[in-house]
Amino acid sequence: MATLSTSTASSRMPPALYALTAGAFGIGTTEFVIMGLLLQVAADLQVSIAAAGLLISGYALGVFVGAPLLTALSSRMPRKAVLVALMVVFTVGNLACALAPNYTALMIARVVTSLAHGTFFGVGAVVATGLVAPDRKASAISIMFTGLTVATLLGVPAGAWLGLHFGWRATFWAVTAIGIVATLVIAALVPADRKDQAPIAFREEMRVVARPQVLLGLLMTVFGFAGVFAVFTYIQPILTQVAGFADSAVSPILLVFGVGMIAGNLLGGRLADRGLLPALFATLATLALVLALMTFALHHQIATVLFVGLFGVAAFATVPPLQLWVLQKAQGGQNLASSLNIGAFNLGNALGAWLGGVVIVHGPGLGALGWVAALVTISGIAVALWSWRLEAPRRIAAAAATCPTL
What we know:
Membrane topology: Multi-pass membrane protein
Order of helices and strands: HHHHHHHHHHHHHHHHHH
Number of helices: 18
CATH architecture of the largest domain: Up-down Bundle
GO molecular function: transmembrane transporter activity
Helix content: over 70%
Structural class: mainly alpha
Number of domains: 2
Domain Major facilitator superfamily (MFS) profile: 16-391
Oligomer: single chain
Number of strands: 0
Keywords: Cell membrane, Membrane, Transmembrane, Transmembrane helix
Subcellular location: Cell membrane
CATH class of the largest domain: Mainly Alpha
CATH superfamily of the largest domain: MFS general substrate transporter like domains
CATH topology of the largest domain: Growth Hormone, Chain: A
Strand content: under 5%
């Protein structure tokens, strides 16, 4: 009985990890919720829907720029202080969104809010892995990122409902409240940095990021995840124009995708804890396979719903292995490398959305997005193979060191 109790206790994740999840939920909600508010924002601020859509692009650009910028500015700060400061930036940014008198002010507020995104997830991932045993690091990352997936599943629809019934500003007031709560919870539960976690000079972190294996890890993330958004960006027209669903069916089908995201994120963490390299190849290969087979599934509605769920699982099962791979290769400069990998995910999002648009406009069209996206993800697998080959001398040396001499 004592053994069982000890095992159960050791399997529990520390409360501080769930505090990070709360922050991830708030940030994930504010990133995606604007998609459900475009019509209200456009009408209220008297801009076109296309201009309102740029509020999404502005946020993504802010994430990509903000990750290295804020990591550099905060490089000598304790990690807990960085996380609290970033949540303050996030909260103030959403407050500014709620109070924005015009489109320009709203765009500036969105960009300010986005600056905290990359560094929060980057530093948060480093802190999360430091809270658990070495064989639970990927699971810790996946639990933190569950906040992002739950935001997509629950936070975004709730925000869209608030915007529909009480105006789009009410949504940003609600996210501001989430930010206040998350800030207080992180300040209360996340432990202070240990003495062996002294801040690292930004110049040293830059040297770490310049390592070939770290750069390949970032490239792996860009290409591996670009395939996801080559399809997901255009999921509504794919479902309605190719699969033949009614507009009213899109939201319930996306709910299936959201459930798949949560399951895949947790599954990817467990697989990576058992074996990082096998999990990396397995999750990327599964994603490529699901994307390729979706091309055929779209001709049958039941198969389409099934593959949308599998798409969610496969897409987010890649996240913990990709993030942990970069963290492992960036020993001595994890803050910057981890933040840059979050930027790499967003760069992959932008690249995938652009490529999908090219395929739609110039051919072969919506129905081909699945196999084109699969080819992009396969390029991420090729980068992973390149990285694996570079490690061959180290693996051989390690094997030789463990073999008994005759």
